[in-house]
Design goal:
InterPro entries: Peptidase_A22B_SPP, Preselin/SPP. This protein has nine helices and eight strands. The chain has 284 residues and is mainly α. Helix 3 packs across helix 4 (127-146), helix 3 packs across helix 6 and helix 3 (55-110) packs parallel to helix 7 (201-207).
């Protein structure tokens, strides 16, 4: 009976919330990926076609992920602020992709006027789209300033949905190959990397905090309100919840104070589920 008691932490509020969030993101990703594929077919947009993974690409993903993980293990401090800038741009784009169908739905439901602001390179840009872009950019800026875990989760979820929306697995065989390769990738870097590199590479990278780019700039130019800018920033490649979720106290930036789920684990689950459900829906 003792091993069963060790699973009691799964019934804690933070653990339950994390599990429910993972389930909700799975269903949301399936719906968005399916609708995104239909949008591209309807609009005949070849510039944003989904990336179809063949056998060679599926086998290369664990290798490339390993190279990226090892690179971040050795030079994270040197490239962390550049990485923050890249993630900020990617997160704003992902949020826009995620939320754009809802703005279109509200526009059609309430009959909102939506004049064009510009037409460039065969792309139209409307007033509501401009407002949505400002909103997404504002959320990213708020994350850069505060580093709040809720905003971290929001950006992480949007990156998951965006990635899954653009990736397609042609059949279950490729899906199984990719899942098997990523399973070996996880096992090696979590349980065996310490023997070769002197530290658990996966845990080190996932729990690493970066110097906040915004705080660095504000400090250099002596901007007012320095106390509002967090010095350390956790990158949104994981979903986190404070262990004291319902106590109303925000913990310090310490990995031990949070329960977390890596986006890599989310993406593996999402790709498999999305592949299965899209194939089922396509037959109907």
């Amino acid at each position: 009976m003792e091993p069963l008691w060790k699973l009691a932490y799964l019934l804690e509020p933070a653990s339950v919330t994390l599990i429910l969030t993972a389930i909700a993101v799975t269903f949301g990703s399936v719906i968005r990926a399916f609708n995104y594929g239909k949008e591209m077919e309807r609009n005949h947009d070849s510039s944003e076609e989904s990336i179809i993974l063949d056998r060679s690409k599926a086998l290369m993903i664990p290798v490339l992920c390993s190279c990226g993980l090892l690179l971040m293990f050795y030079v994270f401090t040197s490239i962390s602020q550049l990485l923050i800038a890249f993630i900020a741009i990617a997160s704003a784009s992902s949020l826009y992709l995620w939320l754009s169908p809802y703005t279109a739905y509200m526009r059609s439901q309430f009959g909102l006027a939506d004049p064009f602001l510009s037409r460039c390179c065969s792309k139209s840009f409307t007033r509501i789209q401009g407002f949505l872009l400002l909103l997404c950019s504002g959320i990213v800026v708020a994350w850069l300033i505060s580093g709040h875990w809720m905003l971290n989760n929001l950006l992480g979820i949007s990156l998951c949905i965006s990635f899954v929306s653009h990736i397609r697995l042609p059949n279950i065989k490729i899906c199984a190959m990719l899942l098997g390769g990523l399973f070996v990738y996880d096992i090696f870097w979590v349980y065996y990397s310490e023997r070769l590199f002197g530290a658990n590479v996966m845990v080190y990278v996932v729990t690493q905090q970066s110097a906040n780019l915004v705080h660095t700039v504000a400090n250099k130019f002596s901007l007012p309100g320095m106390q509002l800018f967090t010095k350390k920033l956790g990158l949104p490649y994981k979903i986190v919840f404070p262990r004291n979720l319902w106590r109303g106290v925000v913990p310090e930036i310490n990995a031990a104070d949070y329960i977390m789920l890596g986006l890599g684990d989310m993406v593996k689950l999402l790709l498999c589920v999305v592949t299965l459900i899209i194939k089922i829906l396509s037959k109907h």
